[in-house]
Specification:
The protein has about 300 residues and is α/β, with parallel strands linked by helices. It has ten helices and ten strands. The relative contact order is 0.16.
């Protein structure tokens, strides 16, 4: 699949929205809806495919603003699925025929959970609207940190109620006591409209398994607490075999409070974090083709297993 100019530069929210609308308009496979809105009222777009009555797989990207490459990855996956379905072609050796691939299955793709953070990470504090002044101040206080948070300076992957009190103590020990570019979990779990939107989505649909895409490290996290299902490890090993990514456990402040952690704790179903690419965030756009090459089979398997 040849990548066009959209995939050759960091996205804007408008360009990403236009692309998702185009995919839904031109494809019989996908429908586009919104799971809610961000702090700055940007829609949290969701592409859905498959049988409406089937428990879906949920793929979530760009929880952290500077990890916008994951939004492009999931958009690329949706576009590849739509194209392959139209032409009855294969992705990574798996034929995409809607009546077969999605027989008894469904898929939800939320490419960008943090559109405000993405805009801030790419365009600077002026993209934070009414929070522009506060955002500029936070950037001045922490000039060495890339922007991961939402428009209110809350790290969305620290804002879920999974070991949140433990995480808060780890934040404090790390010197994080308030809003900033990264790792502040907010005043309380689910304090942010973006995390509330994911909670509603998981209440609306019986999500069969969840994959949350981050950057970087080429690692797969699959475990959290006593409710981690055994089949989570089986799937993680399969994803590892298909991608070359390493199955392991996060450490430190990455050990609690995340979307994957909360999903496993809440549902007892498989949840995964996939850390794509290697290097320092934001990863260079030139890595996208290689990330896609390594993960396209894994993305297909996430629908099937």
């Amino acid at each position: 699949m040849t990548l066009d100019s959209f995939y050759c530069s960091p996205p804007t929210f408008d360009s990403l929205s236009d692309r998702l609308k185009e995919i839904a308009k031109e494809s019989e496979l996908f429908q586009l809806s919104s799971a809610g809105k961000s702090v700055l009222e940007r829609p949290l777009w969701v592409l859905s495919a498959g049988e409406a009555s089937a428990p879906p797989v949920l793929l979530v990207g760009c929880t952290h603003g500077s990890e916008w490459i994951t939004a492009l990855l999931l958009t690329l996956f949706a576009e590849a699925l739509a194209r392959a379905a139209e032409k009855r072609e294969e992705i990574a050796g798996i034929r995409v025929e809607p009546g077969t691939l999605f027989h008894g299955r469904s898929l939800l793709i939320l490419p960008c959970l943090n559109p405000d953070g993405m805009e801030i990470a790419i365009s600077g504090p002026q993209a934070a609207g009414e929070y522009a002044h506060q955002t500029a101040q936070m950037m001045e206080r922490f000039p060495e940190q890339v922007w991961q948070a939402n428009a209110r300076g809350v790290d969305l992957n620290h804002n879920f109620p999974a070991g949140w009190d433990i995480l808060r103590q780890l934040e404090i020990q790390s010197g994080i006591t308030g809003s900033g570019p990264t790792k502040y979990g907010g005043p309380h779990p689910f304090s942010e409209p973006e995390t509330q939107a994911v909670r509603r989505l998981c209440a609306q649909f019986p999500i069969r398994q969840l994959l949350s895409f981050h950057a970087q490290g080429e690692e797969i996290y699959w475990r959290y607490g006593d409710r981690t299902p055994g089949r989570g490890l089986t799937a993680a090993r399969l994803f590892s075999a298909s991608s070359g990514y390493k199955v392991c456990d996060p450490v430190g402040t990455a050990s609690h409070g995340g979307l994957k952690d909360w999903f496993i704790q809440e549902t007892g179903r498989p949840g995964f974090t996939l850390e794509v690419g290697r290097g320092q965030n934001p990863l260079p756009i030139e890595q996208l083709p290689e990330i896609w090459r390594k993960l396209r089979e894994t993305l297909m398997l996430s629908i099937l297993v």
